[in-house]
Amino acid sequence: MKFPKFQDLILFENDNLIVVNKPAFLSSLDDREGGDNNLLRMAKQYSDDAQICHRLDRETSGVLIIAKNPETYRLISMQFEHRKVNKVYHAIINGTHVFEELHVDLPILNLGAKNVAINRQEGKPAETVFNSIKYYKHYTLVECRPITGRMHQIRIHLASQRANIAGDEMYGGKPVYLSEIKRAYRIGKDQEELPIMKRFALHARRITFKIDENTEMTFEAPYPKDFATLIKLLDKFDS
């Protein structure tokens, strides 16, 4: 898969760090299988000592912090460890759901092989706050604020509320097809209809953290084309 140049992903850069808008389908770090391009490799080609400070799922797009030196990596890692980083994601979920500061507090157990489960006995603490932003007939645009940073946390916490992310088949989400929202939509006789988004609809929208000891900053990642297109079509045909 062809990705933009690393320079084209940059939202902010100074002497110590880079903030990028990660494209979907690009792994944050090396996969065990190796071979595939990933954000860390791209970052190291751009800046020798680059280290990724947190990760996003391969299919998740959005804002991600890269440190250019060990001191900055430490500064940002400590903020993540002490839950001082404010993260905001946007998700499009199946169904209409009214969330007003819904606080989901369900422990998550990492089962290995990129699988997790809710497990109240053995899971690690996991908390997310959800707010509905926009309602459609069959979908909802939701703001997700993870307080902890467990693998697949937002995805499984939404699934626990029967509010699965559109396209997230691993957790029961169904993809969005134009034929389902556009009246009188007809597909050609021998054509197979593809979903509007070829991944689950989750985007890391905004992040707030200290870029040095005294300066806190917020960075926002614009929606990628597929996410923006889905919202545009929902606005047009499912409002």
UniProtKB/TrEMBL annotation:
Q: Which residue ranges does the record assign to the Pseudouridine synthase RsuA/RluA-like domain?
A: 16-160
BP terms from Gene Ontology: enzyme-directed rRNA pseudouridine synthesis
InterPro entries documented for this protein:
PsdUridine_synth_cat_dom_sf, PsdUridine_synth_RluA-like_CS, PsdUridine_synth_RsuA/RluA, RluA_PseudoU_synthase
Give one GO molecular function term: pseudouridine synthase activity
The record's annotation in Gene3D superfamilies points to: Pseudouridine synthase (3.30.2350.10)
Q: State the similarity comment.
A: Belongs to the pseudouridine synthase RluA family.
Q: What is this protein called?
A: 23S rRNA pseudouridine955/2504/2580 synthase
